[in-house]
Design goal:
This protein is of the alpha+beta class and about 325 residues long. It has one domain: Jelly Rolls (Sandwich), CATH 2.60.120. It has an eight-stranded mixed beta sheet with strand order 1-2-10-7-12-5-4-3. A four-stranded antiparallel beta sheet has the order 6-11-8-9, with no helix packed on it. The longest helix has 28 residues. The structure holds 2-oxoglutaric acid (AKG) and fe (ii) ion.
Length: about 325
Amino acid sequence: MSRVSMKLPLIDLSNLGENDSPRWESTKTQIREALKEYGSFEATFNNLIPLELRKSVGDGIRQLFDLPLSIKQLNKNSPKTYNGYVGQNDYGRLVESTGVNGVLSSHAVDTFTNLMWPDQGNPTFSKDIQLYCEKLSELDKIVRRMVVESLGLEKYIDEHMNSTVYRCRFQKYVAPRTPNSMLGFFSHTDKNIISTLHQLNHVNGLQILTKDGKTWIPADPTSLDSFVVFVGSSFHAWTNGQLHAPIHRVVVSGDEARYSIGLFSIPKEGYMIKTPEELVNEDHPLLYNPFDYYKFLDFIYTNADASRASPDPLIEYCGA
Ligand SMILES: O=C(O)CCC(=O)C(=O)O
Ligand SMILES: [Fe+2]
């Protein structure tokens, strides 16, 4: 029997119109269903990122990864941030990744570029990255607003939207130059709220595991205006498990490097993630006690091997 390869749901977020337009309403349902079943979907959004900006950001990220290792390593994880440089380590031998916390602030982005380009900074890259992430954050906000609305939790919208900041991470996957595919980024769930991934060149490799754990769905973008959206463990917990937080990985092959950029909405420091009581009842008992995202990350990193082996370390950390 020939196997048809599965695809992620494709949802168009361009021209949605007003909050209660018929398009808004029908898209909301599509998003909720996609995030329940797959924890992920491919979003198209025409001209969200103008082509020039995309090219310029692509060039900037190549230059960034071409910098000497000793410079790239200057971007360190400080306590409570996980935005520092990781290179060709146990995440995957082929991946390098580095990022900026609080990326919508010009101060945060300038601090990063001044560290990477100590002579005169990189004003073009600073400006581009900030604009790029602002655009991606529009997508993040639409998705979250729609989820909250479709769960009938309008009264929590402001609190929810104000409870996060944005982290941006850039990834480069070295070309394996072997006939076989190689693991670029190990299987994992994201731990934040929503992740929005944009592949910057035509080298594919991102895969999402189905809920039943049986099939890896390739998340190859179908156009330049295409983004992959994932649910992270924190949003899974907030929705009392209604949204699935999918396991995903990156597998690469061929002779060209892959580049991607991710925007992650993450809870603000000190914010306790607490499932709204409206989502808890006899049929849906509380899954997770209130928790602090950063303390959860500390737990994961101090129990790294066990956490990696566990299908859901959040259960071990604060399961109800
Ligand atoms: O590079 C990608 O496409 C995915 C990266 C990823 O999963 C992550 O940064 O959490
Ligand atoms: Fe991820």
